[in-house]
Design brief:
The chain has eleven helices and eight strands. Strands 3-2-1-4-5-6-7-8 form an eight-stranded mixed sheet, sandwiched between helices. The protein has one domain: 3-Layer(aba) Sandwich (Rossmann fold), CATH 3.40.50. With 323 residues, the protein is of the alpha/beta class.
Length: 323
C-alpha cells in the first residue's frame, strides 16, 4: 500500500449519482462496456448525467438501445450512443475500436465493466477459457486498440472492474485456460478478476509518462445478471439470500454498486493516482483474516505478475501495445 492512501467522503452506501453531484463532464467522452445491464447501466447514467458523451458498448444492441433511450430521459442528456461489442470475439473488439477511432474524438474515460461469472466451461474460437477471455483479454485488446484515442485526451482514466473474487485464485500462468487442470468455474472467475486488477497495475505504470491513470474497482456484492449461472441452492449455500430469497444485508443496489466505478472515473482526489485497488469509494486496505471479504490480496497487485500478464496477453491477442 502506498503511503498516500486515497480516501473520500463516500462509502459503502453511496450511489453513483451522489458521487457525480457537482462534477462537470461536459465535452468529455466515455465508453462503458456491459452497459445494457446491472451496474453498467448506472455507471453510464451517472456519467451522462454529469454531461459526458457516453457510448454503451454491449452485446445486445436492441437492449442497449432501450437502455440508451431511458438514460437520455433520466439524465436529460441526448449524447448516449450504442455500439455492438462482444468481448469474447476479438474481431468484434477490433471492429468496435475501429469505429470509435474513425470518429476522431478523444476518449477521456474507459470503464471496462462487462463480465461473466462462474459459468460452465466455454472456449473462444482461439481455445481460450471464456471467463479469462471475456473479463480480461477482451478488455486488454479493447484498451490497447483505443490507446491513441485515450492518449489524445488530457489525463484519461481507465477503470478495470475486479472483484473480491480475486481471492479465489491468482493468475495461473502455467495453465491459464484449464487445459491440464480440471475446470473449476470459481477458480476461473477468480483468476480473471486477479487479471483485471493486475491489468490496472501495469497499464497505470505504462501510462504515467502520458498522463493516463488506471485503477481497479471492486464494486461490492450486487444482485444482477452476473448471477445467471448460479442456482438458488448455490446462492443459499453461500449465504447470499435470506429466507425470502432476497439479498442479505450488505449487498448493494446497482446504483450503489456503480458508485466506486464512477468515483474512479471522476474523483479529483484520484488525479494522477493509479495502479490502486478501490472499493466503497476509497482506496482499499490489504485483506486480513478477520476481513476475508474485503480488501485485496497481494497477488492481485504484484508488479512482476502484472508485467508478466501484459506480455502473455499480448501473445494471446496477437498484438503489441506500446502504452
Amino acid at each position: 500500500m502506498t503511503p498516500d492512501r486515497v480516501t473520500s467522503r463516500f462509502g459503502h452506501g453511496s450511489t453513483a449519482m451522489e458521487v457525480v453531484a457537482g462534477v462537470d463532464l461536459r465535452g468529455k467522452n466515455a465508453v462503458v462496456t456491459g452497459a445494457a445491464s446491472g451496474i453498467g447501466i448506472e455507471t453510464a447514467r451517472a456519467l451522462a448525467g454529469a454531461g459526458a458523451d457516453v457510448t454503451l458498448a454491449v452485446r445486445n444492441t436492441a437492449k442497449g438501445e432501450e437502455v440508451a433511450q431511458e438514460i437520455r430521459k433520466t439524465a436529460r442528456h441526448d449524447a448516449v450512443r450504442v455500439e455492438p461489442l462482444n468481448l469474447a470475439d476479438f474481431d468484434s473488439v477490433r471492429r468496435f475500436a475501429d469505429r470509435y477511432l474513425a470518429r476522431r474524438v478523444p476518449l477521456h474515460i474507459l470503464v471496462n465493466n462487462a463480465g461473466i461469472m462462474a459459468c460452465p466451461l466455454g472456449r473462444t474460437p482461439e481455445g481460450y477459457e471464456s471467463q479469462l477471455a471475456t473479463n480480461h483479454l477482451g478488455h486488454f485488446l479493447l484498451t490497447g486498440r483505443l490507446a491513441s484515442a485515450l492518449l489524445a485526451a488530457p489525463h484519461p482514466r481507465v477503470v478495470s472492474l475486479t472483484s473480491i473474487g480475486h481471492r479465489l485464485s491468482p493468475v495461473v500462468f502455467d495453465d491459464l485456460h484449464f487445459e491440464r487442470r480440471r475446470y473449476d468455474k470459481w477458480l476461473a472467475y477468480g483468476q480473471s478478476k486477479s487479471a483485471n486488477a493486475l491489468f490496472a497495475v501495469e497499464l497505470d505504470r505504462r501510462g504515467k509518462i502520458s498522463g493516463l491513470t488506471a485503477n481497479a474497482v471492486h464494486p461490492g456484492g450486487i444482485m444482477t445478471g452476473l448471477q445467471q449461472h448460479l442456482s438458488r441452492e448455490e446462492m443459499d449455500a453461500m449465504g447470499w439470500l435470506d429466507a425470502d430469497g432476497k439479498p442479505r444485508v450488505g449487498f448493494k443496489t446497482p446504483q450503489q454498486g456503480a458508485a466506486t466505478s464512477v468515483w474512479a472515473a471522476t474523483a479529483p482526489e484520484l488525479a494522477g493516482r493509479g495502479g490502486r485497488y478501490l472499493e466503497d469509494c476509497n482506496e482499499s486496505l490489504p485483506a486480513t483474516a478477520d476481513r476475508p471479504f474485503a480488501g485485496y490480496h497481494a497477488h492481485a497487485i504484484d508488479p512482476a505478475s502484472a508485467q508478466r500478464l501484459w506480455a502473455v496477453s499480448e501473445e494471446l491477442v496477437g498484438e503489441t501495445f506500446n502504452l
